Every structure is written in C-alpha cells, then in structure tokens.
Amino acid sequence: MKKEKSSLWEWIKAILIAVVLAGVIRQFFFAPILVDGVSMASTLHDRDRMIVNKIGYHIGDPKRFDIIVFRATEDKDYIKRIIGLPGDEIEYRNDKLYVNGKAYEEPYLDKQKKQIADGPL
Questions:
Q1: Residue 91's domain spans which residues?
Q2: pLDDT value at position 6?
Q3: Which one from 6, 13, 80, 113 is the annotated catalytic residue?
C-alpha cells in the first residue's frame, strides 16, 4: 500500500512540475499566436498558427523588416513588419519604399500587388 502511495505521489509531483514549467515557458519565453486577418499576406495568412519568441528583443534590438507581435489593446495583439526605426524618414513615391532617401525592394508584397493589379479592388 505504501509503495502505491509513493508511486502516485511521484506521478503527481511530475505532473505539477510539468504544468508549472509549461506555464513559466508560456508566460516568459514563447507564446502561440493565431494570425487574424490578411494584413500580412502573402508572408502570413489568415488563421496561420505560429510560436512567438518573447525574449528576442530583450537580448537585441529589432531590425528593419523584422516581423513583430505587439499588444495593441488589452485583448488584441497585432502582427506587423518593421519598416522604420527611430529617427528614420519613411516615404513612398511611385509605389516604391524609401527609407532615409534610399530605395528598398519589398519582395513580400509582389504577389499581393499582382493580385490587386489583376483584379477588382
């Protein structure tokens, strides 16, 4: 009888440790995200699922064209691409992106631009 209680207690401890560890990982390191909308097409699609690294920008700064997730409201996260960094001057001329006067390609928009050009708005 004592061996059964010991075995049961070991299982309970293992499950509790796993739950606490999963909670800590979820809260501080990684989080599941569901893409809601088409604003990031064609890179990310509506209803795509992803795992987000929550500690990356505590180690280093975000870079131009990184995709980030941020809290927009208390109950809503947004997924966006960084185009400008602090102090940058952003401009669109003739359907071309300029950052601080330098032109940048946006290959992630090519498919979407073609769909818009070929179809109704």
A1: 85-121
A2: 83
A3: 80
